[in-house]
Specification:
single chain, 61 residues, mainly alpha, 2 helices, membrane, transmembrane helix, transmembrane
C-alpha cells in the first residue's frame, strides 16, 4: 500500500476516535451522541471508499 493511502486511513481512524470521544464528552443542542456517531459513520464510509479505490486501482493494473 502507498504511504498516502495509509495516511488517509490513519486520518479516518483518528476522526472515528475523535467522534467517539466527542460523543462521550461534549454537550450540544443536538446531542453529543448524535454528532459523535455521525462522525464515526462518516469516517467508516471514508475508510471504506479509500480501501475500495485501492483495490479497484490494483485490479486495473
Amino acid at each position: 500500500m502507498e504511504t498516502g493511502l495509509i495516511l488517509r486511513l490513519a486520518a479516518a481512524i483518528l476522526l472515528a476516535a475523535g467522534g467517539l470521544f466527542l460523543a462521550t464528552r461534549a454537550h450540544f443542542e443536538v446531542t453529543a451522541e448524535q454528532v459523535g456517531l455521525l462522525v464515526v459513520v462518516l469516517a467508516v464510509i471514508w475508510a471504506y471508499r479509500i480501501v475500495a479505490a485501492h483495490f479497484d486501482r490494483a485490479d486495473h493494473e
